Amino acid sequence: DKEDEDDDESSAKDMGKTARRNFRFWFIQDLRKAVDISRRGLRQNVARYHTNLQPTEILDILRSAGGPGRETLYFDIECERTTGRIVCFAFSFNAKDIYVAPILDHTGQPMYGLSFAANVFRELAAAFSRCTVVAHNGPFDFFITLWRYHIPPPRQDFIYDTFIAQSRIHVDVEKSLGHCGSLWTHQPYHKDEGEVFYGTPEGYNRYLIYNAKDVELTALIHQEQLLVLEKDPGLRDSVM
């Protein structure tokens, strides 16, 4: 009863708490999920996380992005909170194969050297121009890539933001990636796995997998949101 009603969802990226006024909504959604699982079974996605790619493989995959009809590119970055330097970024064209490009290593130094970083960001910028880019709270990611690395963001009509879509489909409820994952998918919660990466190669590898899971979850949320929007043209126009 003494819980503060003034929940600040902007206090940390994707770490917003559930406001007490929304407990009823989430309780109903959890009941619906429980009934669905009891009737049709647990349906978790199984993806391949490619975290040990060679630099040439990462560049080749990015160069291949942008097939006929503006291929969808799911995208998410992880960066240092104090400097804004990108530690790694993950991308995918579906929810099955997730690729991670490491920029800094576990000591904070360039993983494959500055020439790789320059080349991979050049290819990322080119992919942005050829694909429809789907991100969760994309203004954060696109601000960092523009501010720190001078990468122009995708055109406005070639961006789909699952965070913004959530704010139109369910206006007053939480929009963090963890909340959206709970609402739209059967994936296990993972947002407590990516706090620290410096120190050991093992911890850093867990951080890369955490980045991959963010992209996987974004892709799954996007696919489920589209099913809802297809049935409601007015809502679809509002989201777009």
Map the helices and strands:
Elements: H1 23-40, E1 48-50, H2 55-63, E2 72-79, E3 86-92, E4 97-102, H3 114-130, E5 132-135, H4 138-149, E6 159-161, H5 162-169, H6 177-184, H7 201-230, H8 233-239
Parallel strand pairs: 1-4, 2-5, 5-6
Antiparallel strand pairs: 2-3, 3-4
Helix pairs in contact: 2-3, 6-7, 7-8
Description:
- It contains 8 helices and 6 strands; from the N terminus they run H-E-H-E-E-E-H-E-H-E-H-H-H-H.
- It has 240 residues and is of the alpha/beta class.
- It has a 6-stranded mixed sheet, sandwiched between helices.
- Strand 5, helix 4 and strand 6 form a beta-alpha-beta unit.
- Helix 2 runs parallel beside helix 3 and helix 7 crosses helix 8.
- The longest helix has 30 residues.
The strand count comes to 6
Structural class: alpha/beta
Q: Give the amount of beta strand, in percent.
A: 5-15%
Outline: globular
Note the main sheet: 6 strands, mixed
Give average pLDDT, whole number. 91
Sheet with most strands: strand arrangement? 1-4-3-2-5-6
Rg for CA atoms:
18 Å
- What is the ordering of alpha helices and beta strands? HEHEEEHEHEHHHH
Oligomer class: single chain
Number of helices: 8
Helix content: 40-55%
Entry keywords:
240 residues, alpha/beta, 6-stranded mixed beta sheet, 8 helices, 45% helix, 13% strand, globular
TL;DR?
The protein is built from eight helices and six strands, in the order αβαβββαβαβαααα. It has helices spanning 23-40, 55-63, 114-130, 138-149, 162-169, 177-184, 201-230, 233-239; strands spanning 48-50, 72-79, 86-92, 97-102, 132-135, 159-161.
